[in-house]
Amino acid sequence: MESNVGRCGLCQEVRALRESHLLPKALYKLSRAPSRPNPNPVLLAAGRASVTSRQIADHFLCDDCEQRFSSRGERYVLGQCARPSGEFKLREHLEQQTPIAQEQKVRLYDVGTLLGPHADEYLYFAASVFWRASARAWAEVGPRPRFSLGSVYDEQFRLYLLGKADFPRNGRLYVHIWSGPIRDNSPFGFTTLAPCTARIDGERRHKFCIPGLTFILFLGGLVPQRHDGGALNSTHGKFMWLCPFADDSLFQGFVNVVRQTPPPASLIRSLAGAHGRTPERRPTPLGVRDRMGGNERTSCPAAQREDGIVSRFWEATSTIAAATSSSMMQSARATA
């Protein structure tokens, strides 16, 4: 395996460095579409879309720290998220239980008892992804605003991930389990979105998602007062939410970015061939954003008039692994 010698980003020791991934390598496999001639994921970055096997990776962590991330959360959490086979272990388990609160399309579960020590693995996994995104300037296709937790929180999370400190006291993590259909032909399917951020009401709200799960991190001095109830690391319990991903501002921001990004020619040809049509190139309509209930929603009346090829590109976003973009960051105005 290729390795370089350098200072590990996590333990700070000088060691042989592994090729570390911004997003776990296994997520790229979940984002593949075997039914397409080119089954690789569609990667959105810097306003461009490409069908590629390229993964966002660099020599960053030593083997011990890579194994630490895997054993303390990554392996378990990825085994519980939505699978292409239709299996979604975490959701299936919670749907057999009685929620502690329920309102319309939202259910709240106390997972401290339901998941036992595994609940902490979700906390650790989310922290590892947010920290990785912030602790290094990851090489992507084209420039973008860098994701940042801030130097103080970077160090607090680094010590937490090493087991030398508690989870940052000014941080609360929410976990949303997607209640809607998760399959290749659903509006979002096996979408993975890298961490993005927005500053709202004097606090930072960071988000990322993997198939079936959205992780929302609130950081700031007032966060323990504002967002303790319902958090996975609440002082009153360990909570997770079952709710529609389509109602989340992260999804709405993703929709907006997709509709402003021209689909790659190879994907258009692939989808056109699968439907027996001659491929055409038409402009992708822009989303029209408005404010609804504190979440930024995206609507697109022109979508009813868009070309069928572009429509099928949108249907294919179930296989997109999206890198953080400035448009995503502006659109992901999170609420818990």
Entry summary:
This protein is 31% helix and 25% strand. It has helices at 25-30, 63-80, 89-95, 111-114, 118-135, 151-161, 223-226, 249-259, 265-274, 308-315, 326-331, and strands at 4-7, 14-21, 42-45, 48-51, 57-62, 101-103, 106-110, 171-178, 192-200, 203-210, 213-219, 239-243, 288-292, 295-299, 320-322. It is globular and about 50 Å long.
Structural commentary:
- This protein is an alpha+beta fold.
- It has a domain at 60-248.
- The protein has eleven helices and 15 strands.
- Strand 13 (288-292) and strand 14 form a beta hairpin.
- Helix 2 (63-80) crosses helix 5 (118-135).
- The protein is globular and about 50 Å long.
- It starts with a strand and ends in a 5-residue tail after the last helix.
- The relative contact order is 0.17.
Describe the secondary structure blueprint for this structure.
Blueprint: E1 4-7, E2 14-21, H1 25-30, E3 42-45, E4 48-51, E5 57-62, H2 63-80, H3 89-95, E6 101-103, E7 106-110, H4 111-114, H5 118-135, H6 151-161, E8 171-178, E9 192-200, E10 203-210, E11 213-219, H7 223-226, E12 239-243, H8 249-259, H9 265-274, E13 288-292, E14 295-299, H10 308-315, E15 320-322, H11 326-331
Helix pairs in contact: 2-5, 5-6, 9-10
Strand arrangement in the largest pleated sheet: 4-3-15-9-10-11-8-12-7-6
Mean pLDDT: 78
Give the low-confidence spans: 277-336
Give the strand content: 25-35%
Order of helices and strands: EEHEEEHHEEHHHEEEEHEHHEEHEH
**Strands, total number:** 15
The level of helicity is: 25-40%
- CA-atom Rg in angstroms: 20 Å
| Content-based structural category | alpha+beta
The backbone outline, from C-alpha atoms, is globular
Number of helices: 11
Kindly report the oligomeric state of this protein: single chain
Main beta-sheet strand count, sense and barrel state: 10 strands, mixed
